[in-house]
Amino acid sequence: MTEPSQRFLRALKRLPVDRTPVWMMRQAGRYLPEYRAQRAQAGDFMSLCKNTDFATEVTLQPLRRYSLDAAILFSDILTIPDAMGLGLSFVAGEGPVFAHKISSLADVQALPKLDITVDLDYVVNAVRSIRSALNEQVPLIGFSGSPWTLATYMIEGGSSKDHAQSKAMIYAQPELMQQLLAKLEEAVADYLHQQVLAGAQALQIFDSWGGSLSHAAYLDYSLAPMQRIIASLRARPGLQDLPIIVFTKGGGQWLAPMAEIGADALGLDWTTDLGQARAQVGDRVALQGNMDPAVLLGSPAAIRAEVGRILASYGSGPGHVFNLGHGITPQVDPEHARVFIDSVIELSPAYHQA
Q1: Which among 65, 76, 284, 342 is annotated as catalytic?
Q2: Which of the residue ranges 2-16, 61-75, 158-172 would you say has the lowest mean pLDDT?
């Protein structure tokens, strides 16, 4: 790979780069008219994910528009519980819904051990196809949901505002929750490993709902499973130096323990000041983030100003991957996304001069 195409991977390892690399969570998504057209052709969201050609095309769409420094596999965080037989569907206005929920020891014991190359072969095939189509222009990110995040959907049966049933299991049946998380840890580690074998060059663990937990519960039920997954991956041949990002939405208060779990980079949402985070973690990890996606609903001048403020907050030197603090929203004008990306490209080189 040429130096520019290594920019993202080098930044994750805190190595010098010519400018700050940039990509967006959900960069292949509903804000793009070409994505909406492709989804309409597929018929529904999961059909889009499970068709190798569609998944490849959708992954490449934002790269045709923008000078992004990484591609991310087009898939969903809920593929593992779906493969475990819980019956995932997406209902208009409601989001993901599972036909079967987890509420008892029998439910947990009935969950099968996945053979990723068989049960999630469409994801493996998509990674292989996307990596080939990228032709080494930019690196490919593979991903999974965290065990805690997957568990919340499996227990609640879908999205939840308060995760009441999941938290109830922590406090009323902690052993049951740990058994469920243990099964998910194994599945996530195997899933991510197979993505790497198929061509993923970096990994991100999306801990979407870790921020809903108390301090003690986060450490035990969200952070510890992710740490064990990273340790499992690091113990496998060829994965010792693989860049791994952990993103806990709402997790800024746990930066110190997060920096100790073996990840190369921590994703931050917009509620954490980037400069303060850098001062806290030092040179232990890179940082990814962290512009509020709502900024993209503002004027081009406001977008550029916020990019400049965040770059200044992080300061000079390596170890920063510019991203949004969460996924880009469907209402965003694609041209505003262009202003965001172009502003990072234009303004960041000043922070990387020798």
Answers
A1: 76
A2: 2-16
Q: What is the structure's pLDDT at 3?
A: 66
Residue 71 phi, psi (nearest 5): -110, 150
d(CA 66, CA 343): 12
At 63 the three-state DSSP class reads: helix
Residue 268 pLDDT class (50, 70, 90 cuts): very high
Find out whether the peptide bond into 125 is cis, omega within 30 degrees of 0.
Answer: no
Does the annotation count 26 as an active-site position? Answer: yes
Instruction: Report the C-alpha gap between 119 and 113 in whole angstroms.
Output: 10
pLDDT of 91 strictly over 80: no
Closest CA to 223 of 238, 241, 237, 211: 211
Concerning whether 30 is annotated as a catalytic residue, the answer is: yes
Q: Comparing 12-16, 43-47, 122-126, which segment has the lowest mean pLDDT?
A: 43-47
What is the CATH number for 128?
A: 3.20.20.210
Q: Who contacts 71 (Cβ-Cβ below 8 Å, separation ≥6)?
A: 23, 59, 60, 63, 130, 134, 138, 139, 140, 141
Tell me which of 31, 35, 66, 153 is the catalytic residue.
153
- Which residues span the domain enclosing 280? 4-352
Is 351 one of the annotated active-site residues of the chain? no
CA-based nearest residue to 344, from 285, 289, 286: 289
Look up residue 168 and give its two tokens.
């109830």
Which residue bears the tokens 């095939």?
Answer: 125
Give the separation between CA 199 and CA 191, rounded to whole angstroms.
Answer: 13
Give catalytic status of residue 153 as yes or no: yes
Check residue 16 and give its pLDDT: 96
Question: How many folded domains does the chain comprise?
Answer: 1
Catalytic residue among 7, 26, 131, 228: 26
Reduce the DSSP state of residue 319 to 3 states and report it.
Answer: coil
pLDDT digits (tens, 9 = 90+) for 205-262: 999 999 999 999 999 999 999 999 999 999 999 999 999 999 999 999 999 999 999 9
The C-alpha atoms of residue 275 and residue 254 are separated, in whole angstroms, by 15
Number of H helices, E strands in the chain: 17, 9
Residue 44 is among the residues annotated as catalytic for this protein: no
Q: How far apart are CA 55 and CA 198, in angstroms?
A: 15
- CA–CA distance, 154 with 143 (Å, rounded to integer): 18
